[in-house]
Amino acid sequence: MISEKMTKALNAQIQLEGQASFLYLSMASWCDKEGLEGCTKFMHRQSGEEREHMLKIFEYLSDVDGHALTPAIKAVPHEFDSVQDMFQQVYKHEQKVTASINKLMDIAVKENDYNTHNFLQWYIMEQREEENLMRSLLDKIKLIGKGPMTLYYIDKEVEKINAAELAAEAAAGEA
Question: Which of 5, 35, 40, 95 has its CA 20 to 30 A from that of 156?
Answer without folding.
Answer: 95
